Fold each of these.
Amino acid sequence: MPDAPTQGSIQRIETLVRIYTEKSGTTVHPDATVTDAVVKGLARSLDVLGRPLCPCRFYPNPTEEVRHRTWICACDDMQIYKYCHCLLFVNSEGKPITEYLPEAHVGRVAYGVVRDPTPNKGRPLRIKAVERERDRRLRDS
Ligand code: SF4
């Protein structure tokens, strides 16, 4: 991937972030360098793959991964559990929300239980949790 994403893609991702923080009741990270790095990574994905594939994971085949859609921002973990492992969508302390994750999920193990400050917002795909965990086991995603 090229090092510097285009300004056009950066602006599209910034718009996505603005809309999605409002929709999900989350905020961006209090350390702006965290947000900047993730936004640029997502913008690079947009430039190279045509979709904002999550930049915080390794994919053996990024083009094939785009077809699954699991890690296109806002990803399945965000839309089901309101959990963002990149720390782009977090609470006001900069912590990812973990309270809806399965207990064995790496996010729960790493951060413990972090409560959702706005439970009336977000998680539009919450009914897909069983399907998500099956997918995670079957293809390590
Ligand atoms: S973890 Fe999900 S919501 Fe967070 S930046 Fe990556 S794709 Fe987006």
Amino acid sequence: MAEESVGAQSAETEPSAPTTVGPTTVGPRTIGPRTIGIEGLQALIDALAARGYTVLGPSVSGGAIVNGPIRTLDDLPRGWGDEQESAHYRLRRRDDDAFFGFAAGAQSAKPVFFPTDELLWRGRRSRAGFTVEPESAGANGAPAAESGPYALLGVRSCDLHAIAIHDRVLTGRVQADAHYAARRSGAFIVSVSCTDPAGTCFCVSMGTGPRPEGGSAARFDLSLTELLDGGHRFVVEVGSDRGAEVLADITAPPAPLGDLEAADAVAASAATRMGRTLDTDGLKELLYANVESPRWDDVASRCLACTNCTMVCPTCFCTTVNDVSDLTGDDGERHRVWDSCFDADFSYIHGGTVRESTKSRYRQWMTHKLGSWIDQFGTSGCVGCGRCVTWCPAAIDITAEAAALRGTTPPTRPN
Ligand code: SF4
Ligand code: SF4
């Protein structure tokens, strides 16, 4: 294999291979897939850090895989897999050294671009009047003291779709969320193909995975498919000019046909091992027609209204605003914090709560997620990541609830 870096390639179009990992037209060039080894993955992390990115990626902490700072390969969950089922999450040791051999982690990209607690502004009252401190707002109104721009390593295909949904929701309306927009525009995304979906995954049903492939998803800058057969390596696809520039910093020879076929096989195999399915055919209409279904009473008898499902969901975006001041009343701050439609106070308006019962709140969440979201934003609000199923302490499963409304039972794969 020739040791040629992507930066050394000519401006000519590279020959395409007969696989689904195709060349990407980036600016004036068409850049074909590349292959890097383990040392190339470290070089990629180093190249991103050298360009000023704070690299965040999957890391083992507290018995789960969560977002964490990635400086070396040792920060990644090498050799770790996971088991996910309804109300069940466990790490497990793999019998190989895969860096990305697990399914969607406990956190999506949501907390990175849309923090749980966002300082909107800080103000001070004095004899001269009320002033908003300039250091509390940076470019486009975003906080100045950020540790970004961020490079997100290991973003799954379902989460790319979730980011695209947030892009539409948070920046596609009359008033864009400046804080979110600033973080998103500066971010570099390295996605990864899923190789081992969990028992709660159903991205195939939602058309959102398991391989990052563009379409209605947020664009990746680089995308990796991890290969373990015949040598530990990664097929790298380029999705943007920025991705090409970063890849030019490291040694990344063109991927041989065998690697492209192996990457195709990994994704095809993952697609057959989804633990859940969701029949989306006519689902919006089904939900609208079942507003009075007794199934809502049934699920409400199990639901704890704990809000877990909305916290882990990569597309939920409900927030509330908290104003706080110090004891003198001279210094005040306004924060935007995550909220949930499962909280009774969330629908409190002028003297009353609109959705008083857990039944009405679960119905609202599921009907919005799978039905009225389509009318509102043009897509489903669910990307099939399965997190709400895994992290619900009452083992409530959105795919099972949808099937129950149809009068069917969805098939599941034992994990
Ligand atoms: S469905 Fe589950 S996770 Fe969601 S609020 Fe109810 S008990 Fe909590
Ligand atoms: S509703 Fe559940 S499966 Fe769908 S995107 Fe949200 S957390 Fe994932």
